[in-house]
TrEMBL record:
Entry-linked InterPro entries: Creatinase/aminopeptidase-like, FAST_Leu-rich, Pept_M24, Peptidase_M24B_aminopep-P_CS, RAP, X-Pro_dipept-like
Signal peptide residue numbers: none
Keyword Hydrolase in record: yes
Organism: Anopheles christyi
One Pfam entry name: FAST_1
Name of the protein this chain belongs to: RAP domain-containing protein
GO biological process: proteolysis; regulation of mitochondrial mRNA stability
Length: 1000
């Protein structure tokens, strides 16, 4: 801010002279009211203090303040900064009959401070000063011993008489005397006393000679004595003068603003802006929060001070402490201000200092940013870094709630943040308070985010809700149920509690009237969602809406639909094929279910009575999505909108979605608008099968896994992997096979919560490992495991009906022999080759042949086979060593459906591939096992020896060592993706990994 030195007005119609380069001041508008209070300025002398006759002086005596300086109050000037013009109060002093001066800068020349006559005479010695101080102490002691105002005034009068006409005492004595008078007198007596000359002399002494800190402290005491307006005005105006003369520090200006506000002097308060502006460079990281706190007390001049701070804060932010940052943000919240430059700078501060911020400090900062309605990439990055570093180590549930609230408020669908919060909930649920459950759970639904650890997360959620159901507010319970439905989860175990008459009575009794309709609406959506999507639900349990009811519809959507109606009618086939703004009969009257446009055949009749079982994929629901319906990236829809689309599809409608922002931009481009609408209609989502309906004939829903299924399959694979690792650790020669099975079952149930297995466990050791389906009733895993045996354990847990199927092969004693290494590495190489090649668009037959070819090549290198590998494959030798397919579909059954369907490749009759459980081309979302194996099965070995086309490849003298070897199988559960696989199996696989794990 450029500063003006001073401005002279030679007449009431004169022109202001002298202005800065970018800050212009226009003519003040004066309210000619004289104030007779004094200041330290060189032109202002203290009023005469000749002792009057009597206490109050003669009736015709001139006012004691007649020589005090006069200045004009309530003057304003126009201040221009760029294009911004503000009218601000200013201190204007009358210095001559027709001359005024406006103080708005630090260029004013001031004289030395006046002092009491007893201490200011020339030639005063140090002894005189010491004597004066000792005298003040004696007076203060005498004043403290007084019990009445009369006694105080008598002591001061005696001191004045001794000083021969001067006040004879300093500001310290005057302040103590005033404090004593305030203490001993009643308010009524004080009001009368204020107009007396002795009292005014005490106040004048304070005004002329006390330091600013003492005046501020005294004003702070006078907050309780607002019946003394003249005294408060004198002290307050003195601070205003000193501010205009740049005699107050930044901290004192801020204190003055606060204390004068509490003394109800708003006009004085507004004049301190110039003092802050003049001392802009004095604003440092240590006092900047004081200036921000003063904004709360300013009204007229708040914008001017804020402009100063906006310029200053980018120069200080990197030095600010966390407490100063918090106070700055909280001051902005209190003022309801969110200046972009300041909030952006403080967001940068947070991202830079996130490593040094304590939990309570981060919570306060994020809460302030949320209340300011501000977030940006730097804040998101800071939270992400914090959650990654701390995770479950965070001790404050308040901080996690604040983080989730911030994410929900600004639609931050950040996987790292949300997964970290879900891990915190799982790890610390036993210490959480029930009242926090809604705040911890509902943001996930609003953001339509299912955590990576979904199974544990929802299990923990169900358990916690079941345990504390009675302690949670009914309205929060309904919000949680609504969140379940948004995430396509069906909490059937709580249905009886929700629709219990007692619960519903409490819900209505404890819900505020203005929120009752919202809560009822969510309850109906919960009932409707279960009815549409959960086959096991016995609803609907709530009656349909039969009465007319107003439904809120956003005006922006209405206007854009009306604007593009012509184009929509053209796409639908005419005006009789389109219906706007309707709610279907099967859904509750709720703004969530309001369909913006429905395309339907002409002459359909009542669009509200669709046959949802027969009329599927005939009608198209067109929905317009506003920008706030998406997350902060604009990529993902929020949970309620995803649920809205899903429910309409369950009713049999195709759903086409339009983005409001794109429609708005294309309003003036008709051709591009039509192309966009055509594109979106072609991309309309087909109807979903109703809850409980049989699967389509092609079995695609069983073959292609949904995100929810993938989460469950990932979990059960992890549990099974951990159980296999537990078996490997427990293994030692002398154990029985059923003991290994028992350890797998124990770990799966006790640790992973999997009560069932997907199939009978195969625990074969030695020659039993060559029996593909060992472990059944005829061979019930009952053999003792010998030292040197190769173990083949094929076991998989089952969770929620979803199967895992994992096979681990390893030596019983934990150390591979040379022959065991040879066979194991041959199978591992086959498995690795398939895992590297499998992806969308690849034939499963090709993957099977790849595995066989690699395995035969490894056996040839180990001198068990000889000749050309391609010839071996052509002869069918691969089926001798691996008499089963590469793998199978996995899901709700361990050998899931979908292998050979109409329109898919048929089963081959060729040896080596005729045992495959599918010949399909892989697609993203398929979930299969990859399980190459190598077995030395006596009947098959004899068959190969007796067949000349096969025996020529066998090195008999070496193969005979393996007649009692058994077999090796390595089986992983993998998800096919567009670019490869996602392997859900997590067990030691290499020879070194297995030996290291079993050695622990």
């Amino acid at each position: 801010m450029s500063r003006c030195v001073w401005y002279s007005l030679r007449s009431s119609r004169g022109v202001v002279s002298g202005f800065g380069a970018s800050l212009n001041y226009c003519l003040p508008q004066f309210a000619a009211r004289v104030c007779a209070f004094s200041s330290k300025d060189a032109g202002d002398d203290p009023p005469p203090t000749h002792p009057p006759e009597g206490v109050n002086g003669p009736k015709n005596a001139p006012p004691s303040n007649s020589t005090s300086k006069k200045f004009v109050r309530n003057a304003t000037i126009l201040v221009q900064q760029g294009c911004d013009i503000q009218e601000l109060p200013v201190v204007v002093r009358k210095i001559a009959e027709d001359e005024f001066v406006s103080f708005v800068s630090n260029k004013i020349i001031t004289a030395p401070l006046s002092t009491p006559s007893g201490n200011s005479e020339e030639g005063s010695t140090a002894n005189d000063l010491q004597a004066s101080l000792e005298s003040d102490k004696d007076i203060i002691k005498s004043i403290d011993s007084c019990h009445s105002t009369k006694g105080v005034l008598t002591i001061l009068k005696e001191r004045e008489d001794e000083a021969s006409g001067s006040t004879g005492y300093g500001p310290v004595v005057a302040i103590r005397a005033l404090e004593k008078i305030l203490k001993v007198e009643s308010l009524l007596e004080l009001k009368e006393l204020e107009d007396t000359e002795p009292f005014e002399r005490i106040v004048n002494c304070i005004v002329f000679h006390a330091d600013s800190k003492a005046i501020l402290d005294l004003l702070d005491e006078l907050r309780s004595y607002l019946e003394l307006p003249k005294t408060i005005d004198m002290l307050g105006n003195e601070l205003v003068y000193r501010c205009s003369e740049n005699a107050l520090s930044i901290e004192e200006c801020c204190d003055a603003i606060e204390v004068l506000t509490q003394c109800r002097r708003p006009e004085m308060v507004e004049k301190f802006w110039s003092g802050i502006a003049d001392q802009e460079k004095s604003i440092t990281e240590r006092n900047v929060h004081f200036v921000f706190s003063s904004l709360l007390y300013l009204k007229i001049s708040r914008r001017a001070v804020l402009t100063v701070l906006e310029r200053r804060i980018p120069q200080l932010w990197w030095q600010m402490s966390p407490n100063a940052t918090i106070e700055v943000l909280q001051a902005l919240v209190a003022c309801k201000l969110s200046p972009y430059r300041i909030t952006q700078t403080l967001a940068r501060w947070l991202n830079t200092n996130i490593h040094a911020v304590a939990e309570d400090e981060l919570g306060a900062i994020l809460e302030a940013f949320t209340n300011l309605a501000y977030s940006d990439a730097q804040i998101e990055r800071a939270i992400e870094r914090y959650v990654k570093a701390k995770g479950v180590k965070v001790s404050s549930q308040n901080l996690i709630v604040t983080i989730l609230r911030h994410c929900e408020e600004f639609r931050l669908r950040n996987a790292h943040i949300l997964n970290g919060c879900s891990e915190f909930f799982i790890a610390n649920f036993s210490q959480l308070e029930p009242s926090y459950l809604k705040a911890l759970f509902c943001p996930f639904a609003y953001l339509d985010f299912v955590p990576t650890n979904a199974t544990k997360f929802f299990d923990t959620m169900n358990m916690f809700l079941d345990l504390h159901f009675a302690k949670i507010r009914p309205t929060d319970t309904i919000d949680i149920m609504f969140a379940y439905i948004c995430l396509e989860r069906f909490p059937l175990n709580f249905v009886n509690r929700i629709f219990n008459p007692y619960f519903l009575d409490v819900l209505h009794a404890k819900t505020r009237p203005e929120r009752l309709d919202i809560v009822r609406g969510k309850l109906k959506v919960f009932d409707t969602g279960l009815t549409l999507e959960c086959a096991d639900y016995d609803g609907p349990l709530l009656p349909r809406d039969h009465s007319a009811k107003a439904v809120f519809h956003d005006g922006r959507i209405k206007r854009i639909i009306n604007y593009i109606t012509t184009e929509l009618e053209e796409l639908a086939g005419g005006s009789e094929c389109i219906t706007k703004f309707s709610v279907l009969q099967h859904l509750p009257v709720n703004s969530l279910y309001l369909v913006d446009v429905i395309f339907h055949p002409p002459g359909l009749g009542n669009i509200f009575s669709l046959n949802t079982m027969k009329e599927r994929n005939i009608n198209v629901a067109v929905l317009v999505h506003l920008p706030e319906y998406f997350d902060s990236t604009g990529k993902y829809l929020i949970g309620p909108q995803v649920m809205r689309i899903r429910h309409l599809r369950r009713l049999g409608l195709k759903v086409a979605t339009l983005r409001f922002d794109i429609l708005y931009k294309l309003k003036i481009h008709p051709q591009e608008l039509r192309e966009y609408l055509v594109e979106r209609m072609k991309a309309a989502l087909d109807a979903l099968p109703p809850a409980g309906a049989p699967m389509p004939v092609d079995g695609t829903p069983r073959v292609i896994k949904s995100p929810g299924e993938i989460a469950v399959l990932r979990y059960v694979a992890r549990v099974s992997s951990d159980a296999h690792k537990a078996v490997m650790k427990a293994m030692k020669p002398g154990m029985h096979e059923y003991q290994a099975e028992a350890e797998f079952l124990r770990h799966s149930y006790a640790v992973g919560g999997c009560r069932h297995v997907s199939y009978t466990c195969i625990c074969g050791a030695g020659t039993n490992s060559a029996i593909l389906h060992y472990g059944h009733a005829g061979s019930p895993n009952d053999c003792a495991i010998k030292d040197g045996n190769m173990c083949l354990f094929d076991m998989g847990a089952n969770y929620g009906g979803y199967a895992a199927d994992i096979t681990c092969s390893f030596p019983a004693n934990g150390k591979f022999t040379k022959d065991q290494k040879l066979v194991y590495n041959a199978v591992l190489a086959a498995r690795d080759a398939v895992c590297g090649a499998a992806r969308e668009g690849v034939s499963w037959i090709d993957m099977h042949l790849l595995a066989n070819r690699v395995m035969l090549e490894e056996l040839r290198k180990g001198q068990l086979l000889q000749g050309d590998v391609d010839e071996m494959m052509e002869a069918g030798l691969n089926a001798i060593f691996q008499p089963h397919g590469l793998g199978h579909f996995l899901g709700l059954d361990v050998h899931d459906v979908g292998g050979y369907l109409p329109g898919c490749p048929e089963r081959s009759s060729k040896a080596g591939v005729n045992r495959l459980r599918t010949a399909r081309t892989l697609k993203a979302g398929m979930y299969l096992t990859i399980e190459p194996g190598c077995y030395f099965i006596e009947p098959l070995m004899n068959k190969a020896y007796s067949d000349p086309s096969l025996s020529k490849f066998l090195v008999k003298e070496n193969l005979d060592r393996f007649r009692n070897f058994g077999g090796v199988r390595i089986e992983d559960d993998v998800l096919i993706t567009k670019d490869g696989i996602d392997n859900f199996t997590l067990v030691p696989r290499t020879v070194d990994e297995i030996e290291a794990w079993m050695a622990k």
